[in-house]
Amino acid sequence: MIKIENLHASIDGKEILKGLNLEVNAGEVHAIMGPNGAGKSTLASILAGREEYEITEGSILFEGKDLLELSTEDRAREGLFLAFQYPVEIPGVSNINFLRTSLNEIKEYRGENPLSAKDFMKMVREKSTIVELDSKLANRSVNVGFSGGEKKRNEIFQMAMLDPKLAILDETDSGLDIDALRIVANGVNKLKTPQNACIVITHYQRLLDYIVPDFVHVLFDGKIVKTGTKELALILEEKGYDWIKESAAV
Amino acid sequence: MANYTENELAKDLENQEYKFGFVTDIETDKAPVGLSEDIIRLISSKKNEPEWMLSFRLNAFEVWKKMTEPEWAHVHYKKPDFQEITYYAAPKQTKKYESWDDVDPEMKETMTKLGISLEEQQRLSGVAVDFVMDSVSVATSFKEKLKELGIIFCSFSDAVQEYPELVKKYMGTVIPTTDNFYASLNSAVFTDGSFCYIPKGIRCPMELSTYFRINAGGTGQFERTLVIADEGSYVSYLEGCTAPQRDENQLHAAVVELIALENAEIKYSTVQNWYPGNKQGKGGVFNFVTKRGICERRAKISWTQVETGSAVTWKYPSCILKGDYSVGEFYSVAVTNNYQQADTGTKMIHLGKHTKSTIISKGISAGKSQNSYRGLVQIHKNAQQSRNFSQCDSLLMSDQCGAHTFPYIECKNPSAKIEHEATTSKIGEDQLFYCMQRGISEEKAISLIVNGYCKEVLNQLPMEFAVEAQKLLAISLEGSVG
Fold first, then answer.
1. Residue A190: inside a domain, yes or no?
2. First vs last Cα of chain A: how many Å apart?
């Protein structure tokens, strides 16, 4: 699905990623954990195509294509989805209008016909149940006046609508109470198929109780310093990141 | 707005240059260049006007000669030479058309290019249209149907001939000939425009619509619109404007007067897309317009404008809230790009008790343009319990443009309540990135965000105008983020 090799990236001359390697196959869930400032969100931003980062070295192949050559919107159209840590508010643009525009742009790129209004609304009704999203929110402006939990649920709702090949969840658990966390995680699990994959970026182990990863990677100082199964997350929870820092320093 | 499809928008975006820049090849009957008493007499005689109309013009001319061009607006431009302008240009075929079939095919084509084929409009939307090209009103459709209800909707010239009492009674009562430089000029030389009268208690069943177009080179357009809504009546009036692309600056100095008698309501919507000049700031229309309405007791006037065109705009649609419990509203989107300059806003004059006004102004500046909101809220001594709410938002699309807000508030009654909110924001990189991460192209994302930003205003427009306005916003801001 995606293969990241020796990725080096910097912002304003400061190197954040220092030779990151990661390979994710279809049907897999990968968790990326690590302390603040390790480069987790930077990785998500680079995959999605934020322009302020400079890629100094390395390559990213996504479904056989050079991801770094693709524009932000083409990456999305190829099936890469980022659930934002801080979903953005767009006043005056209804959630429905936003999603319909998005979905039709993606369909057009793939040479498919746009959905009729009727089919689209049917799809909205179906998918909004996945994250128990109040149908009223669909008609409100994108994320405007949404609670923290509603914003995150809205991200997963969008993910359900757009059906990406690779979804990157950037600290989707931050700011969620336990009920919202369960709803969001259940939503993600329902969307999982053998054909798609998911990268879950998180600080805490607790999200991984719900979204069970196939692999856990520890990102520290711009590199993946440890990879294991979900048990690794439990060890981290217990011992903290200092344990990793010490072993990385060795 | 739900009907607007992204594909349509995409098509329009491809055609991003000013698409109304064509010139219609019709013979025109022009007056000699320049302004003098003789020219005014010529215009008046061409139009076969009664004596009182001529003296109205000549009075205005006398006043105008003593006036100087206003300089307080936040705009810079080379002042027009008023002796270099042609004040009368009419499509040559002077006889009035008996039926739509008689209209010059070239002219029909112009209208088709403008997307307002009368036939189509008549059939599909039931919109009555008056079309003013250069100076003369060409065709007014639906006249007969409206006549049955006693509604008068015709060219200003026809009104002067056929309804002289109404014209005489109301013309110049809201905007006197002495009002300001451009209004006085207009009063002296106006050539045509639209006239509308809605009788007592009648709710006009369709949108009345006028399209203005400057076609001939070197001409100024000075049209005059007078809308009278008699007691308890309602009318929604639309106005659209385009002009050919020319290197020179063309002057448009219109006057619009609205009279809303007791319990009447007038909704006046404008989509202004005069040629804005090219990317280097050459050419374009100077749009110096005076628009004002007066509200009697419990009457309401609502101005909605979407301003995307013109090189320089100077325009303040205003309401005089004379009657108790009257209501004034102003909803505006003003877009400036490249070297465009706009100084626009409103005046809400509260004279009566319990009068209420709302101002929603959305300025969008891109390129090297300058966009100013200028508004006056005046509460007079007897205006007990009056209220105003103003919201002025500015959106910046580039680092080189400017947004300015000049709110003036004068309050002479302590029971009044006035609220003013203002914001300035730059179009968010985060918003754009969010849209693009969802597969939406940058251009479409801008259009989405901008339309969302203007929604409160666009929602005030009748449906077909709202769709048109959305497309215009997208085209005007093409490639403007930087």
1. no
2. 33
Express each pLDDT in B24-38 by its tens digit.
555 566 777 788 888
* The one-letter amino acid at B381: K
**B79 or A40, higher pLDDT:** A40
Task: Give CA–CA dist B267/A225, Å, rounded.
Answer: 67
Looking at chain A, which residue has its C-alpha nearest residue B446?
Answer: A90
**Cα–Cα distance between A106 and A91 in angstroms, integer?**
23
- pLDDT computed for residue B246 by the predictor: 59
Most A CBs within 10 Å: which of B7, B440, B442, B444, as the mutation test of the A interface? B440
Chain A residues closer than 8 Å to B440 by CB? 73, 101-102, 105
* Cα separations in angstroms, A177 against A84, A158, A233: 17, 20, 20
Q: What is the pTM of this model?
A: 0.78
Q: Which residues of chain B make contact with A88, given a CB cutoff of 8 A?
A: 428, 430-431, 433-434
Decide if A249 is inside a domain. Answer: no
Looking at residue B110, what DSSP letter applies?
Answer: H
**Residue A90 and residue B452: Cβ atoms within 8 Å?**
yes
Euclidean distance between CA atoms B267 and A96, whole angstroms: 30
**Residues of A in Cβ contact (< 8 Å) with B451:** 92-93
SS3 A14: strand
| Residue A160 is assigned to a structural domain of this protein | yes
Query: How many angstroms separate the CA atoms of B436 and B431, rounded?
Result: 9
List CB contacts (< 8 A) between B448 and chain A: 90, 93, 97-98, 101
CA distance A232 to chain B (A): 31
CA-nearest of B51, B169, B193, B24 to B111 is B24
Task: Look at residue A16 in the predicted model and tell me its pLDDT.
Answer: 94
Beta-carbon count within 10 A of A122 CB: 12
Of B473 and B136, more confident: B473
What average pLDDT does the segment A163-176 reach? 92
Token look-up 């003789």 returns B38
ipTM: 0.95
**Residue B193 pLDDT:** 85
CATH code for position A85: 3.40.50.300
**pLDDT score, position B374:** 93
Which range is least confidently modeled, A155-159, B246-250, B297-301? Answer: B246-250
| The predicted structure's pLDDT at residue B33 | 77
Question: Is residue A109 a part of any domain in this protein?
Answer: yes
Number of domains in chain A: 1
pLDDT of residue A36: 85
CB–CB contact B428 A162 (8 Å)? no
Listed range (B181-195, B218-232, B276-290, B461-475) with the worst mean pLDDT:
B461-475
Residues of A in contact with B444 (CB under 8 A): 101, 105
- Most confident of the following: A236-250, B102-116, B367-381: B367-381
Residue range(s) defining the domain that contains residue A134: 2-180+197-239
What is the three-state SS of A87-138? CCCEEEEEHHHHHHHHHHHHHHHCCCCCCCHHHHHHHHHHHHHHCCCCHHHH
Smallest Cβ–Cβ distance between B433 and the set A72, A91, A102 belongs to A72
Q: How many Cα atoms are found within 13 Å in the side-chain-facing hemisphere of B440?
A: 23
Q: Do A92 and B451 touch (CB under 8 A)?
A: yes
